[in-house]
């Protein structure tokens, strides 16, 4: 296959040749004879996003999401690799639980990794022998799944991970700095008032100190404050920021209500702006979604009873591309590439992914950045049919490729009086697994 005249994130126009699962050549005016040619003039080609933080809920909670529905949502948003977190049921804290989750992950239409968790009854000598992506999300405070751990166990986990050269991802919040006075409130902002910004900063500081003591490197998940980012960066650790912490703040909670509850919570607008600046200037290493779907019925509760988490795997790259279209945002297409592909591949040592270069996996996403559409929860492919980004502008992919196989094609938009063609998904063997009959793109 030859993808011709595509504009890469750096603005250069190139041809990209794919053979089998790999990119074999990138250049100008490449020979197109005996090749299937995809004309990409005027469109941009990105490396597929690596989302290092998702909760696909299976096993245990398939009514919220499954590997099949979550991965289709990922593919439709240009995410070609996902990493699932351990707080499922059973939690991924031993070899048997890992193997069970891996069986469910076989339904995924995108590439995947599985993180192992740490609890009081975890079995490190078995779990760490599995093909873990990382150890974590290691919870320093309770969140969904009640997997918060004590300081001594955290130190033991870091030591075990360092001995086996497994990276560690940390959910950094210190419950000692939660504001119990906020529990007297029942408004949507009470959750943000309860789980304070100081709770995150103190936990990041402590986690980085313990990591240095054990000669370990940690990655701070869903960093929601500029203070947390700065502490981790100065300590030589890496950070991720979610799209909701990047683009939403406490001022959005009056509209979102309990659908805006997540851990860590949304912060004040000034903090959000400073966090955005650190994303733009390179201090933040990557964007990851913390895709954590719940049903509408579950979220439609009091602020103290609603579960924490929002979906995001399908909307993250489209939102970032819409931001990059705006010259005033400071966010460039190259920076989007680094945040979503190159840096996650470097941080988690996935050398075959993250770039459009010869020898890399052919994980590719074609987009028309001239074309924007409004996000609608009802139109997304997750089992969760809502989004905190309802009505936001986005740039959705035309198609998504995983290791040389097109796994998603967006349905053609037809006239207003016609029925639009349904989106089409494929598995890695090229079988049409959902959608209207259509000729396979490649």
UniProtKB/TrEMBL annotation:
Keywords: Hydrolase, Metal-binding, Pyrimidine biosynthesis, Zinc. Binds 2 Zn(2+) ions per subunit. Its cofactor is Zn(2+). Its EC number is 3.5.2.3. The active site is at 290. One of its GO terms (cellular component) is cytoplasm. Pathway: Pyrimidine metabolism; UMP biosynthesis via de novo pathway; (S)-dihydroorotate from bicarbonate: step 3/3. One of its GO terms (molecular function) is zinc ion binding. The keyword NADP does not apply. Residues 425-442 have a biased composition (Basic and acidic residues). InterPro entries: Amidohydro-rel (IPR006680), DHOase (IPR004722), DHOase/Allantoinase_Hydrolase (IPR050138), Dihydroorotase_CS (IPR002195), Metal-dep_hydrolase_composite (IPR011059), Metal_Hydrolase (IPR032466). Coiled coil: none annotated. The keyword Metal-binding applies. Transmembrane segments: none annotated. Zn(2+) 2 binds at residues 137, 171, 222. Residues 45-374 form the Amidohydrolase-related domain. It catalyses: (S)-dihydroorotate + H2O = N-carbamoyl-L-aspartate + H(+). GO terms for biological process: 'de novo' UMP biosynthetic process; purine nucleobase catabolic process. Substrate binds at residues 55-57, 87, 294. Catalyzes the reversible cyclization of carbamoyl aspartate to dihydroorotate. Belongs to the metallo-dependent hydrolases superfamily. DHOase family. Class I DHOase subfamily. This is Dihydroorotase. The gene is pyrC.
């Amino acid at each position: 296959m030859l993808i011709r005249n595509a504009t890469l994130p750096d603005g250069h126009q190139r041809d990209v040749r794919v053979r089998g699962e790999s990119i074999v050549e990138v250049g100008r005016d490449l020979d197109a004879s005996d090749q299937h040619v995809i004309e990409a003039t005027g469109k941009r080609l990105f490396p597929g996003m690596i989302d290092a933080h998702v909760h696909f809920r299976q096993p245990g909670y398939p009514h919220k999401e499954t590997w099949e529905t979550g991965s289709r949502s990922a593919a439709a948003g240009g995410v070609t690799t996902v990493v699932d977190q351990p707080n499922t049921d059973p939690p991924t804290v031993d070899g048997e639980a890992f193997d069970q989750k891996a069986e469910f992950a076989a339904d995924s239409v995108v590439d995947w990794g599985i993180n192992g968790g740490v609890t009081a009854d975890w079995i490190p000598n078995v779990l760490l022998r599995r093909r873990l992506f990382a150890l974590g999300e290691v919870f320093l405070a309770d969140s969904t799944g009640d997997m918060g751990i004590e300081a001594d166990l955290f130190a033991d986990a870091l030591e075990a991970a360092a001995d086996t050269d497994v990276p560690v991802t940390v959910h950094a919040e210190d419950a000692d700095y939660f504001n119990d006075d906020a529990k007297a409130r029942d408004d949507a902002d009470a959750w943000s008032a309860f789980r304070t910004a100081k709770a995150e900063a103190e936990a990041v500081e402590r986690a980085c100190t313990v990591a240095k003591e054990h000669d370990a490197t940690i990655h701070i998940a869903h960093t929601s404050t500029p203070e947390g980012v700065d502490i981790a960066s100065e300590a030589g650790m890496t950070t991720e920021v979610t799209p909701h912490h990047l683009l939403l703040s406490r001022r959005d909670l009056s509209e979102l209500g309990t659908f805006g509850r997540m851990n860590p919570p949304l912060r004040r607008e000034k903090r959000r702006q400073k966090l955005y600046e650190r994303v733009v200037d390179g201090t933040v290493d990557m964007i990851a979604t913390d895709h954590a779907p719940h049903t509408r019925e579950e979220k439609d509760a009091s602020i103290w009873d609603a579960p924490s988490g929002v979906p995001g795997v399908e909307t993250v790259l489209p939102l970032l591309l819409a931001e990059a279209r705006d010259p005033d945002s400071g966010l460039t297409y190259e920076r989007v590439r680094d945040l979503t592909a190159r840096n996650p591949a470097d941080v988690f040592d996935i050398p075959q992914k993250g770039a459009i270069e010869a020898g890399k996996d052919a994980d590719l996403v074609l987009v028309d950045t001239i074309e924007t559409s409004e996000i609608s929860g009802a139109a997304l492919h997750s089992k969760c049919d809502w989004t905190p980004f309802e009505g936001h502008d986005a740039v959705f992919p035309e198609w998504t490729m995983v290791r040389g196989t097109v796994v998603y094609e967006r349905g053609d938009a037809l006239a207003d009086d016609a029925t639009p063609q349904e989106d089409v998904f494929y598995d890695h063997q090229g079988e049409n697994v959902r959608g209207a009959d259509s000729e396979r793109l490649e």
